[in-house]
Amino acid sequence: MAVRITTAPRGNRAKAFDREIAAIASELIDRQRAGIVTSRDLATSLNTDRVQKQNGSAWSYSVVDRMLRRGRTMGYPLVIRGRSQATSERRVHRRSKDEIARGRRRQ
């Protein structure tokens, strides 16, 4: 018995999101080529340069992250740097600070 997988048609909100991605994709690609890779850095950069969303609100890293993920499935050459990759360096740094602090308390 063959399983048939179908995708649901995209609703109006999803189509509007796709249009917003198409409008901003070239800007995101240019910023990533310039070295701004993480979602937080991209959102900060867009807000600093006052690039407006379609509804006029500020960019958040979660919206940029969703755009990067959806843009990849739409065929745009966007780089998705995972949060775990971005935070792993900070976690290692925090651990070393904590270990130093614990060592000082014991003495």
**Structural shape:** extended
Order of helices and strands: HHHH
Radius of gyration: 19 Å
Helix fraction bin: 55-70%
From the N-terminal CA to the C-terminal CA, the straight-line distance is: 69 Å
Average pLDDT figure: 77
Strand content: under 5%
Q: What is the helix tally?
A: 4
Describe this entry's structure for a reader.
With 107 residues, the protein is mostly helical. Helices cover 65% and strands 0% of the residues. The protein contains four helices and no strands. The protein has helices at 12-33, 39-48, 61-74, 83-106. The chain starts with 11 loop residues before the first helix and ends with a helix. The mean pLDDT is 77.
Show the helix and strand layout.
Layout: H1 12-33, H2 39-48, H3 61-74, H4 83-106
Helix pairs in contact: 1-3, 2-3
Write a compact overview of the structure shown.
The chain is an all-alpha fold. Helices cover 65% and strands 0% of the residues. The mean pLDDT is 77.
Give descriptors for this structure.
extended, 107 residues, mainly alpha, single chain
